[in-house]
Amino acid sequence: MYKHLLSLFICLFAVLFTNAQKPKAPSSSEIYESIQKLNFLGSVLYVAAHPDDENTRLIAYMSNQIKARTAYLSLTRGDGGQNLIGPEIRELLGVIRTQELLAARRVDGGEQLFTRANDFGYSKHPDETLQIWDKDQVLSDVVLAIRQFKPDIIINRFDEKRAGKTHGHHTTSAILSIEAFDLANNENAYPIQLNKTELWQPKRLFYNTSSWRYGGQEAFDKVDKSNMITFDIGTYYPTKGLSNNELADLARSQHLCQGFGRLSQRGSDDEYIDFLKGEPLNGSNNIFEGIDTSWNRVNGGEAIGTILNTIEDNFNFKNPSTHVPQLVEAYKLLQRIDNQHWKTQKTKELKAIIEMCAGLYLEASAETNWATQNETIKLNLEVLNRSDLPIVLESLNNASNLNISKGITLKNNVKYNFSEVVKIPNNAEPSTPYWLNEKGSLGMYKVDDTNLIGKPETPRVYNIDFNVLINNTPITFTKPVIQRFAKPDKGELYRPFEIIPEVSAKITEKVIILNNDQQRDITVVVKSGRDNLEGDVEVCHPNNWSILPKKQKVTIANKGEEQILTFTVIPPKEQSEGFIGPIVHIGDKSYTKELIAIDYDHIPFQTVLLPSESKIVRLDIKKRGNNIAYIQGAGDVVPESLEQIGYNVRIISPDDITEETLSNFDAVVVGIRAYNTVEDLNFKQQLLFDFVANGGNMVVQYNTSHRVKVDQIAPYSLNLSRDRVTDEQAKVNFLNPNHEVLNSPNKITQNDFEGWTQERGLYFPDSWDKAFTPILSMSDKGESAKPGSLLVAQHGKGYYIYTGLSFFREFPAGVSGAYRLFANILSLGKEDIKQPVKLND
Ligand SMILES: [Zn+2]
What we know:
Bound molecules: zinc ion
Largest sheet: 7 strands, mixed
Oligomer: single chain
């Protein structure tokens, strides 16, 4: 039994996680569930700010128990967070999180919507959030989502009254949802949207309250819940063999880049919603009270409902194809109703059900997963009718140049395979996330094509229409071209078919730091999207820099191959920074983008085109000391960054920390959150403090104030707090302007605090022993000064430095002031520069 269960479990995970592209092969139970949903005409929109904010328990319940069409509107795509599964950050992380949300919705049955708001990082207050987001645009997008999705019920994840007590994006999502609830039905609000959609008044707005809102389960247990609506989200679905909460946890476990893989829960459990706005409920627990959610809701729907309800009541689990003739009748009636919204939505659902009931298999598979404009590719088409129904494949076509008549009667379970050679049109747009096409601002994506606003991803451009006759009724099934292939060690795999540019290029280093005026080589990688590519490459650069040679030839014989070119960068004499980027000229066309592939098992393969640019910095920097030991914490690129400015850096593990090893180094730097993540450091702290007492420097970067795994972070008392300064432009005051760390070997000025990114720092200590000297003070708007961002203590012959400043963010962004200040920290108490000593690896 156990073995059997285990294999079932593995199967389920295999379906959910390892082949995100494989077309669904629905069972009778799933078809039956789709018919139940088809017969429910009502919808719910869940609103929050980020990927992972959504309560999958409630979304799964609305979609699977109530059968409502359910969507999650996430204002952002989560660019601002950290990635626990790979190197992608910022916009590429947003692409992964978008796909993780879509993967979660494939599990919990919801749909996914977005606005153009960009997750710019932590925000303390909605006022600040709305200064960085363009409030009018984000509100307009929420209104548009309501007008297009037409929800009867809206549920907010967050409380609009908790400004300042949670992430500003969270409170803002609730504030905007409440405003949009009225504006969606106001013809003076965003009237331009009414050219392509209609006014809409949702019936009710709720807030999805929780123990978290009341400060814990104990407090929440005491709250009067008589006015709340309760759902038992642990309900069991025999047709799935899963409980609602299990399904919700499987959905939530799709957020892998946030580390949300989790155990699933079963059994009765409650969720609560509080009424906020709209028509009050008359004492019932039915959030759709007063809304006819049957087919009678639409003009002409009654006859359709009669057919479809009969099918639902008498569903033939053994042979669903027996229902196809009646489904086709309902389909014909549906085409005659005048309500465009329901017609479009229900036609989509009904067509899918007809296809599933008939056991139709329609696939267009390309021999490669990418091609360029004008390229000729071979498509393999597979058509299979697995029913006794008389189905005729009339023709195949696509939007551009494919149009083939077939007129084949598809016999039961006889497979028809044919291949076609097709040319990708010369105007086919490259496949890339539409919201990254143009450079946006800190708070907003720029989307020129207004038809795309709100869509979760760029619609597939290369599709095949299969035109069939079922019971003499023409129905078109549109399938995106995919690539189906097998790997001996993985089995059958599916990938989306992508259109890519004929050439892309990148500079291998994203940030290039030169700490003197010596010239340096950089590497440009040119990748060809087609055979026989010929052109030339130049690297554009700021005026006071030179890059030689001016141009180089590129010749690539085969599609997919790369050519590596070396250019020499000559920096100016003085401190300077800017951007450089390759331009590839092919004939009269120029290409400036790089192609990035994102490949994880739990989401479909993604190709992303981004402007190819690297930051280049000529630093005016002096330093003392050379050999740095780095103790990794949660992971950061500080070691590579210190190497860029000429330090010898060796990464050491807790086991390497001995008196003898440490004696090789001038300083030890402790990576971000090391004391939260590396338990063994507790046994090594005294050795590190002794190293300081003997003349070494020890620099500790931020740790969170909770879950500290060492007894003593510093040789003197130090209390970590949650103090943070999120405004990266917050004014910095020098508390001790004459301190060595601000003067030697580099004179630190206000200029060094310009151009910082995302934040100043986080988890600053709020009290400390008098052995520490606070160096800087800063604060966010309206808050008290925070003097704990950089604390220096002399300990014996060396220095211990604790800093919550976000060096780990500033270094990869090439912020010169951060490098200069860090060089001073490492140089504290050091004399002349020692000769570099080659370390034993
Ligand atoms: Zn959030």
